[in-house]
Amino acid sequence: MITAQEILNKLNKKKSNLPVSNIKNIQVWIDSCGKLGNRHIIIQGWAFHPDIEDISFDITFNEEHEEFENLNCQNIEFEVIRSTRLDVNKHFSYSDNRKRWGFAIVANWSFEFEPSPDKLKVVIYSDDSNKTVPLLPFVPIAGETLFGHCITWRSEERLKLMSVLHSMVGDKVFELPGLKVADAHVLRERIEWNLDNVLAIPGHGVFISGWLLDPEQTLAGIFVRSQDASYSENLVFKSARYPRQDVIDAFPGKAQSSYQAGLFAWIEMPHLIEHSSLEMVFVTKLGVITIIKIKQSNVRDDITLPSQQVLVNFHVGRPDYQEVMTTHIGPALTALWDNRKQLLGTPMVEVHQFGKTITNPKRSIIVPLYGRYDFLLHQVVQFTKDPDFDKTELIYVLDDPKLYSQFIPFCHDTSKLFPVSFKVIYGGRNLGYAGANNLGTQYATTDQLVLLNSDIIPSQPGWLSRIENAQHKLKDLGVVAPKLVFDDGSIQHLGMSFVKAPEFGDLWLNQHPGKGTPEWLADVKTEMESPAVTGACMFISKSLYLKVGGLDETYVLGDFEDSDLCLKLRSMGYKHYVLGNEKLYHLERQSQDLFENRDWKFKITLYNAWQHTQRWGKLIEELVA
Amino acid sequence: MFLARTDKPSHGGSAFSTINSDREILFHTYMSDFFLFQSGHKKHIWQDFRALLKRYQPTVVHFHHYIHMGLELIREVKNTLPDCKIVLTLHEYLAICANNGQMVKPGKQMKLCYKSSPAECARCFPERSPADFFLREQYIKSIFELVDIFISPSYFLIDRYKAWGIPESKMVMIENGQPEVETPAPRPLAEGEVRGRFAFFGQINPFKGVDVLLEAFNLLPEDIKQQVHLDIHGANLEIQTPEFQEKINKLLDDLGDLVTMHGSYESHEIGRLMEATDWMIIPSVWWENSPIVIQEAFNHGRPIICSDIGGMAEKIIDSETGIHFRARHAMDLAKKIENSINGCIFDSLCQKIQKPLTIRKCRELHDEAIA
Description:
heterodimer, A: alpha+beta, Immunoglobulin-like, 6-stranded mixed β-sheet, 5-stranded mixed β-sheet, B: alpha/beta, Rossmann fold, 4-stranded parallel β-sheet, 15 strands, 37% helix, transferase (chain A), Glycosyltransferase family 2 protein (chain A)
């Protein structure tokens, strides 16, 4: 059998006489023709073409074959990988190591007959000329032989081969017979890893986080495999990486300090069943496979800890922040909240009436209560002096199960002492700001909704009817809100606007222009149109509220729901107004000022901001232009 | 009917019991929150107190206190008897100041406070936010709005509540009335004796300035010390902080038999105690309102040396019915003590002291104000 060396020698002799750009002068050699199971073939070899920048490959049926008529000719789907062949360079005494002479053609084989050199041919094209390359007999190829000709391939080229194989063959590539399987301890001779958290969210997917120390890039792929043999995408490409100095320190000399050992990823698995066993599949660039079982936590409705685990290693300062949010953090958090909602089902609602039921109310005020309930007393004390409350349906939504046992007797005492009627709606769990308002709205019997925060205190009686009267003359009315001030009289809210935050990947954040300035310095007018208004005190028609589906419950822990509602309405042509003559106090709680400390809640806020920007970025651009 | 709060247990847990006569009722209740003056058992208010109001049907309810019972009492009167007049006598600055109504800032220095605001108050109580104080003010004011007339025994207190937001038109100054007694003659002096018998009446706590008083005596020149004596009629030193007790005890040790500690006294004993006294000293380091001992001293014809602030400065006219010293300054007090033992000054001041308002007249003034 003629060796590659001999061919090269022969070819080399003629080299000096070759005309430029002649397709005939391309030197081509086939190393192997293999069958990958029954569905795929792989043809490997090299093509030396120093005078031609680029050539293309085609694999077709041999039309001259006697059976061609019967072949039921179809196109063959294939992919070509070009690779580095230093051996070819050496024998042609060619010095540019960047040129890739090697090739591997991976093709789908969907025909009933066996592939053979007489039925198939490879054609090489350059411009309008071409050259047919005869093939070798196809032999079953698997495991190590797949990579037998890849000795001088660069690692990214091997990776590409694995990826192409994976994309064509699918996850079964890891189950090809003959692939070398190694135990974890063998793999640990080359790489180190640990999984810190594996959060399995049934019907949604898996969030994994941990670290991987593979500075030599031994791995071609890491996959998570579920019990039903569905595979994740390749985590080598589809994961967020970040620095883990503790890992670098634990393995001195193993990796440079700039190496990013930290790893987390959201793995979408819509068919994941509860308590499915999970495995991690490692594939080295040499095609060696290691499978380990992984322990997971099954996430249920209590998602405080899981959401912290999702966010703990997420850093907004990093350049890949947006990408990581879109690919991993956002979907993982969405899945956590979705799953919680599904598990909890429809709230079992309790309704308590304190004082007499108001007959023919003119308006319905919805006040969610969370964390602190004494605000109810402070509001009721003020409402007691306001005759408007004789015709007001006051609905408190208790959104904090921890408070329930103290809260109900407190309401009882309060209503005995302060003659204002109110209802308490309790959904049995924390529904979030949007969920609580939406629940409360279901119990509103009037069309005039007033969404009110519990830390709002009126400055004088009669505000409800005055605002209602004022809103009748407003055009295309969506939401109307009063001016809100802090306890020292400085502005808390005069309408909401948006500001782009370059420090957080250009997300749009809500802002309250004029916040903190004394009123005389702020530009206060009787009626001011505003792109959005705060949810702390919102007047809106119930039918309009329901038409847009109320406040969106996908925002987490109360943020951006108000501007989201306003923007939804704005996109339909409704306008929002602030009434500068109406003043209420808003004792905005300090804990809501999350942008001061970058903790978990802050990251949740950014998640909300990210969702909000995804939805409304374009409209906001128009509004603030 | 007289209603007073007690912390003693009642008959089988009832809200009320009687004492002395069936017109004097004890209210066995308590507060759970001294910040907002919240009743600790609100059923006592909306059930028991309500029932009492319904049965008795008063036309006037006159509150002297809400602390230890709950501000809700005032609300409840309005709930049950909307036409009943509500009168509230203000005895200190409880509504304005969360530091026991003293308008003195917490901390060792006990700085005097001139005006409250949510931001200022939150500085005194860092564990609370300005918003908490804002809510407190709004809450108390909304209850105070139900009060028809505020009575204060001093103009100084009226000014403070006016600055805080109570309309002046709702406030009336009526001094505390005194029993009608014959003014005892000045203490008879032995040959060569000076007017050196000084007395302090009241609680021994940091606000009352007993420490300033003892320091002043300690600063007196030796020859003066030979001629003067201080009688302290007061109690409760043992419930003060260890630091304060230590300070007072050390001063008492230094002063030896210059000072006599008499302990507490019953109000009917006051005449006998006054007879043995030349001067009363009121060295309070807080504003005071109208300390009853001022009127008691005047009722017994005794001049007063007092701190030159607040209700004391209003009630005691410097160089006419008493002598002012610079509040909190022991040295100044010592100087004033030294000057006052001279009989001439004593005699001239005694001549100008007028009989205070009688209980009968005080009652008439109340009737006029409420009518």
